[in-house]
Amino acid sequence: MNQKPASDTWERGSPYEHYVGRWSRQIAPLFLVWLSIPVGRRWLDVGCGTGALCATIVDRCAPASVDGVEPSEEFLRTTRESLAGRVSLHPGSATAIPLPDASVDVTVSGLVLNFVSDQPAALVEMARVTRAGGTIAAYVWDYAGKMELMRLFWDAAVALDPDAVKLDEGIRFPLCRPDALDKLFASAGLQHIEIKAIDIPTPFASFDAYWQPFLGGQGPAPAYVMSLHESARARLRDSVRARLPVEADGSILLTARAWAVRAGVTA
Ligand SMILES: C[S@@+](CC[C@H](N)C(=O)[O-])C[C@H]1O[C@@H](n2cnc3c(N)ncnc32)[C@H](O)[C@@H]1O
């Protein structure tokens, strides 16, 4: 199949929300309940994207403050539109967070770490801005296992186009596994590391409802779909459809699992 090189495109907020932001918004409250951070804390959301996690912090955690750091100007603009005045937003990256040392109590990051090229440096940077005794926590999709809407997609894509294996997030991203998350957090000298699976249902009313978000081009799988010529895209669509468990009423009931990790900054 003809395809362009791998691209982790994060440029347009609305298609991102449709593809995965809406599911991150469902993981976020479960993740925050698990963290159980007292009210009145200073929070930082690294790679805040379109605001899924920081909006939930604002709504549910009664924070003293929330800062968000994000490299995509367009995602920042989207978040600014919905959270203006409630979150302080900064252009920046996980490896260069534009905040002073020990300036927050809790640093969180949703669905980001796999996309950071120097992950150990990102953890060191998160630990720098988090006060001693504070918390660092994150979640990533279980791309290799129970993030089913993507797993089924890549299984179909690779069966048709063995080259697509290079783009398969379950293979590209070793950090989608709990042992790798544990190792990364330990490498930054963090303590009391805990890991937990968070599962949500991802129901689709029809195959079209499942497939449409893949045509938005945001994120690795949609970027791959949109890199294909029309005939190859149609073959892939039919192959994905054949693999999905379609109910008698046409709906498709899948599960999405995120691996969540939390740890303490050494006091
Ligand atoms: C899957 S999205 C997650 C967005 C949001 N946190 C959520 O839960 O919906 C991945 C995000 O990571 C951001 N990102 C990519 N590389 C990054 C880096 N080096 N540092 C910080 N964020 C990064 C992208 O711009 C994008 O917003």
Task: Describe the protein in words.
With 267 residues, this protein is an alpha/beta fold. Helix content is 40%, strand content 23%. The chain is built from 10 helices and 7 strands. Mean pLDDT is 95; it is low at 1-6. Residues 10, 20-21, 24, 46-50, 52-53, 70-72, 75, 93-94, 110-112, 115-116 line the site of S-adenosylmethionine.
Ligand list: S-adenosylmethionine
Put simply, the count of helices is 10
Q: Please compute the radius of gyration using only Cα atoms.
A: 18 Å
Most strands sheet: 7 strands, mixed
Beta strand count:
7
What amount of the residues lies in strands? 15-25%
What is the spatial order of strands in the main beta sheet? 3-2-1-4-5-7-6
Which stretches of 5+ consecutive residues score pLDDT under 50?
Answer: 1-6
Mean pLDDT, as a whole number? 95
Q: Which secondary-structure class do the elements indicate?
A: alpha/beta
Distance between the termini: 53 Å
The topology string of helices and strands comes to HEHEHEEHEHHHEHHHE
Percent of residues in helices comes to 40-55%
Principal-axes shape call? globular
